[in-house]
Structure to design on (181 residues):
């Protein structure tokens, strides 16, 4: 089974949705953030603070190159992984890439009570969310499919992702469908 790769901004539900999807489909679940934290033995906020963002991006990049060789995995990629074209190309080799989206205000509400995301530990997180979303929009647009998660429960998003995957399988087995959209 092709990997299912969830990309998207912080707070769009990649981990919660990914875990549930993996359980339902009997696939393994890999969160790039969790593997990095495990291997480094420290939280991402500390990696950013003590070693800097470029160091984190390097870890993320080599991990993505490694896990892109897996099969039968649901992969939740950190929100900034899409910024690197090589990451996207690696993830696409054996996976279908689905971007989870949400409106800035929804992202703000979902993330405001947590302090583990260094990029949002700023004076005006909503402004930062808007800025980063604008900057990253062309990267998220490179996903194969997009699912809006605003106002949806985890189960509803899982349902939509399953529909998208079924569509992508039909397209692979019947390429003519691509022409008709
Ligand atoms: C980041 C998103 C985070 C984590 C790091 C940087 C980003 O992952 O990788 O804090 O640049 O958007 P989540 O999207 O899982 O929160």
């Amino acid at each position: 089974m092709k990997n299912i790769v969830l990309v998207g901004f912080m707070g769009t539900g990649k981990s919660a949705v990914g875990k549930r999807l993996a359980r339902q489909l009997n696939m393994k679940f890999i969160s790039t953030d969790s593997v990095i934290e495990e291997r480094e033995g420290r939280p991402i906020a500390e990696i950013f603070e003590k070693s800097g963002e470029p160091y984190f991006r390097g870890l993320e990049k080599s991990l993505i190159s490694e896990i892109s060789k897996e099969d039968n995995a649901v992969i939740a990629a950190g929100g900034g992984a899409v910024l690197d074209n090589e990451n996207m190309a690696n993830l696409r080799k054996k996976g279908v890439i689905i971007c989870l989206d949400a409106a800035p205000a929804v992202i703000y509400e979902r993330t405001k009570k947590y302090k583990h995301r260094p990029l949002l530990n700023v004076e005006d997180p909503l402004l930062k969310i808007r800025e980063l979303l604008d900057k990253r929009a062309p990267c998220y647009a490179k996903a194969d499919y997009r699912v809006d998660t605003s106002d949806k429960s985890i189960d509803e998003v899982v349902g939509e992702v399953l529909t998208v995957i079924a569509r992508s399988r039909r397209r692979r087995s019947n390429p003519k469908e691509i022409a008709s959209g």
